[in-house]
Amino acid sequence: MEVAVRLENGRTVCERCVLADTALARMRGLLGRRELPSGEGVLLRPASSIHTAFMHFPIDAVFLDSDLKVLQIAARLSPWRTASRRRARAVLELTAGECERRGLRVGDRLLAPA
Questions:
Q1: Under a CB-based contact definition with an 8 Å cutoff, are residues 110 and 68 in contact?
Q2: Separation CA 90–CA 68 (nearest Å)
Q3: What residues contact 89, with CB distance under 8 A and at least 6 apart?
């Protein structure tokens, strides 16, 4: 299922975000894709860690708490890396540099996707 992800203030973070809320969808994530265009992403829920093994491009990983507040941003995470954040309950994966382009910061809060 695709959803749009927005901040509380109404700014859009991801226009076409795949909601990965099953074990299989989380396991698949972005694997097999050659690129991730601006405006697309994956929201892994529940998740507190990610890996970029077998990926072909860097990503921004946004770690969210249970209230969808941004706890940490792992910017420009290269292939074959891992990242995690204690207390994270979800991870939003975006194309590298997207957080900076969209002004996403630690402490921002996302609206819950439908």
A1: yes
A2: 8
A3: 45, 46, 47, 48, 64, 65, 66
**CA gap 53, 72 in Å, rounded:** 20
CB neighbours of 112 closer than 8 A, spacing ≥ 6?
68
| pLDDT tens-digit map of 23-33 | 888 888 787 78
Q: Are 19 and 1 in contact (CB under 8 A)?
A: yes
**Cα angle vertex 32, ends 81, 102, to 5°?**
65
Of 66, 61, 69, 68, nearest in space to 106 by CA: 69
The torsion angles phi and psi of 14, rounded to 5 degrees, stand at -150, 115
Structural contact between residues 17 and 2, judged by C-beta atoms closer than 8 angstroms: yes
Residue count (the chain): 114
- In the predicted model, residues of the chain with pLDDT beneath 70 are 114
Closest of 56, 113, 44 to residue 83, by C-alpha: 44
Helix (H) or strand (E) holding 70: strand 70-77
Rounded Cα distance, 13 and 28, in Å: 22
